[in-house]
Predict the structure.
Amino acid sequence: VGSLRDIREAHRQRVIDVVRDHGPISRAHLQAVTALSRTTVAAVVGELLSSGFAIELPAPPAANPARPGRPPMLLSLNAGAAGALGIDIGRHQIRVAVADLAWTVLAERVAELDDGRSADRTLEAVVRLAEEVLDASGLSRSRIVGAVVGLPGPVARGKVPAGSLLHDWAGVRATDELSLRLGVPVEIDNDANLAALGELAVGAAQGLEDIVYVRVSWGIGAGIVLGGRIHRGASGLAGEIGHINVEPDGRLCACGNRGCLGTVAALGPMLDLLRPVHGAGLTPADMRDLAIAGDPAVQRVIGDAGGEIGRVLAGLCHAINPSAIVVGGELASAGPALLEGIRGELQRSAVTLVFEPLSVTPGVLGERASLVGALATIIADRERLRSLGLFALADPPARAS
Ligand SMILES: [Zn+2]
C-alpha cells in the first residue's frame, strides 16, 4: 500500500513541478511534458482543482487563433491555497506576518510592547495582532497550515524551560493557548534559531549547511545549524553563548553567574561605556548612527565587543567547524566595526583549517530575520508540507543582495 501511495505522490509532485516551472499549461501539453498517462494526469489535476491547489484560467485568445469559440483552459497553481503564520515576540516588539506557499508575504504588522509585560498580557497582544494580520491577508483560517512563534529565550520541546531567564513564560502553555485562540496549530522556538533558519532559507546563508547565526542585541544569542538543521540540545539551551564566561570575577549576570559574554559585549554594557562620552540618553540607534559617522569612541567600544564575541565564537568554531557566521542585531548594519572585531579575533585565535573556510557576514534580513525564519519553518520544509498533503509551490526567492 505504501508503494502505491508513493507512486501517486510522485505523479502528483511531477505534475506540480511541471505546472510550477512551465506556468499556465493545457492538459494536453501537461500530459506530453510529464509523460504520464491521460488518466493519471486527469486524476491528479482533478484532485488539485478540488483542493484549491490549482485553478483553471481561459487561455488568451491569441494562443489559439485557428479555433474560434471557447478558448482552452490552462492549468495554473494557486499559491494562496495555503499559507503560514509567523510570529516573532521580541523584548520590545511583536512582529506578525502571513505568507503563502510561494513566499509572498500577504500581510505583516509590527506592534510595540511595554517593558516588563507579563507573558499572559503579551499573549493577548499577540492574539490581537495575529487576528488583524490574518484578516488583512485575505486567507481563511482553514488555509493556514500552521503558526510558528519565536521567543527571546530558550525553548525545549515546545516549552520555556523552568530556570531560564524568561521565567514568566515557564509553565505558560503558550502553544496550547495560542492554538486554541488562533484556531491553527502552533509551535514555538527560540528567536535566534528562527533567525538562523531565515538567513539559511532566503538570506545570507542560503545554500549552506553548517552555520552559526549570532545576534548581538540586549542579549547575545546564537542559532546553530548543523547539516541544514537547527541544533537545539538536550534542554533547548544550545546557542546561548551570551552566558559563556569571559571574565571570572566580572559583572553579575541575570543568570546568576559573573562575567558572562552578555555582561561585556551586549548593547547594555556598550551603552554604559559610552554614556560618559555621549550622554545618558544614548540609544542603540544613536550608537549605530555615530558608528557609521566614524565616531572613534563608539567604533572602539563596538570593535572591543566584537573581539570578545569573536573569542567565544572561535571556541565554538573549533567545536563545530561551520562555513559561515552570520551576524544580526541592531549593530550588524552599523559599519564594519563589529564584524571586523569578530573576524580579527577569529583569525587570531582559530586554527587555519577552521578560519580559512569561514565567512563572517552581516545578515541580510535585519530585524525581520526571526519572523522570516518562522515562516520558513513551514514554507521551506518540503517534508512537512508533504506530510500535510501540501507542496512547496516555489523555491525560496534568491537572496535580495
Ligand atoms: Zn549569564
User: Anything to note?
Assistant: The mean pLDDT is 90.
